[in-house]
Write a structure and sequence with these properties.
Structural class: mainly alpha
Number of helices: 8
Radius of gyration: 15 Å
Strand content: 5-15%
Helix content: 55-70%
Shape: globular
Length: about 150
């Protein structure tokens, strides 16, 4: 992990938030929209029948969240100048919806335009899976919004 990631303070905040909402399953399963998933919400390279140890799931989460933090900073450079909780909230969103979707989102666009109130409200738009509102996603988006708006 790079020193810049450690210094940002966003990584541990993002990890905590993601763990709270993803949960950990050590056997591959299909998520709400049918994507094979394992560990703390990992989908990359996951196939039916995969089994991980807890240590493997934890290590993979830390590695992937660090990658997502770098990707979020790349797509939304304004976050470099914001408090770490804003970046952490965006990393949690991106981990759930993907970096491409995050980069094209109104959360990213409004953060770049310094419309932080608008960016915070935009988290709430991402509460659907398979075209249907999901209560767990709505709770996660509320938590991300709250973290994004947390006073320094």
């Amino acid at each position: 992990m790079t020193a810049a990631l450690e210094e940002s303070g966003a990584l541990p905040l993002a990890l905590d938030l993601i763990r709270r909402f993803e949960g950990c399953r050590l056997r591959a399963y299909r998520d709400l929209v049918g994507v094979w998933t394992i560990g703390w919400g990992e989908t990359l390279g996951v196939a039916e029948g995969m089994v991980w140890s807890q240590r493997q799931a934890d290590a993979e989460l830390e590695r992937r969240v660090a990658q997502f933090l770098l990707g979020v900073f790349k797509r939304c450079p304004a976050l470099h100048l914001e408090p770490p909780q804003r970046a952490a909230a965006c990393v949690s969103l991106a981990y759930n919806i993907g970096l491409g979707a995050f980069g094209a989102s109104s959360v990213c666009r409004k953060t770049m335009a310094q419309d932080l109130a608008g960016a915070a409200e935009s988290f709430l738009l991402w509460d659907k899976a398979g075209g249907r509102r999901v209560a767990g996603l709505a709770r996660r988006r509320e938590a991300e919004r709250t973290l994004f708006l947390m006073p320094v």
